[in-house]
Amino acid sequence: MTTPMVKAEGVHKSFGAAHILKGIDLEVAPREVFCLIGPSGSGKSTFLRCINHLEKINAGRLSVDGELVGYRQKGDKLYELKDSEVALQRRDIGMVFQRFNLFPHMTAIENVMEAPIQVKGETKAVARARAEKLLDRVGLSDKAGNYPTQLSGGQQQRVAIARALAMEPKLMLFDEPTSALDPELVGDVLDVMRGLAEDGMTMIVVTHEMGFAREVGDALVFMDDGVVVESGHPRDVLTDPQHDRTKSFLSKVL
Ligand code: ADP
Ligand code: MG
C-alpha cells in the first residue's frame, strides 16, 4: 500500500469559540489532483493552512507523506517538533494563494531564486539556472527581469507558482489561485496547473473552476460548515451529486 501524500483523520480546528473544522477525514494519494470546493467560510483555507503549518489543529491526526504535521510520535506519545524540524517539513510543501504576494522589490527571476538561496543555501548560479527553467515552464522566460508591478495578475500568479516550485515540493496547495484574476487571464494559470498535473505533481486545489475540476481533477471533495459532505470522482460529484447541500451549492456555481 502506498503512503498517502496527505491523510486527515478527525481533524478539528477552532478559533476561540468558533468551531471551524469539525472532524475532517480525507486522503490524497501521491500524484493525485485533489479538488476542494465549498461555500465561502466552510473552512477550505483553514484546512490548507493546517497542512502547511500556518495553523495548528486542535484534535485528530494530520499527516503529510506519512509524517505527522508538526509532531513526532513515539509509542503512543506525541512530541511537538522543534522549529528547525517544522521548517524541514514546510520546505516540502508549496503554497499558492489567491493574492500572489510576490516580493515587490525583486524581479520575477529574483522572486523564484530567493527561497532556494535563503532556505537551502544554494548558490546564485544554481538557483538562477533552475529559476530560468521554471519561468520557461510557466511561459514567462521573456519576463524574467520584470518587477511584479510590470506584470499582469495572471503573470504574477504564474511567477508565484514558479517560486513555489523552486523549492522542489512534493505537494502543492492552491488556494483559489484564479479567483483574483480578470477572466481572460484565468486560462493561462489553469494551463500551468494542468501541466503540473500531467507531470505528476500532487496537488490540492481549492477552486471555483468546475471545468478544471472535471477535466484535471482525480478526486473532488465538497465541504460545507467544516465537514466533508460528499466526495468522489469529479465527474460523478459534479454531474450526479447525492446530497442536497452539494446540489444547492452546485446549482449556484455551475
Ligand atoms: P473558506 O476558505 O472555505 O472560505 P476559511 O477557512 O477561510 O473558509 O474560514 C472559515 C471560517 O473560519 C470563517 O468563518 C472565518 O471567519 C474563520 N477564520 C478563519 N481564520 C480565522 C482566524 N485566524 N481567526 C478567527 N476566525 C478565523
Ligand atoms: Mg478560502
TrEMBL record:
Q: What reaction(s) does this enzyme catalyze? A: a polar amino acid(out) + ATP + H2O = a polar amino acid(in) + ADP + phosphate + H(+)
Q: What PROSITE patterns is this protein classified in? A: ABC_TRANSPORTER_1, ABC_TRANSPORTER_2
Q: What is its EC number?
A: 7.4.2.1
InterPro entries attached to this UniProt entry: AAA+_ATPase, ABC_ATPase_HisP-typ, ABC_transporter-like_ATP-bd, ABC_transporter-like_CS, MetN_ABC_transporter-like, P-loop_NTPase
Q: Which Gene3D superfamilies match?
A: P-loop containing nucleotide triphosphate hydrolases
Q: Which family does it belong to?
A: Belongs to the ABC transporter superfamily.
Q: Report the protein name in the record.
A: ABC-type polar-amino-acid transporter
Organism equals Streptomyces griseus subsp. griseus (strain JCM 4626 / CBS 651.72 / NBRC 13350 / KCC S-0626 / ISP 5235)
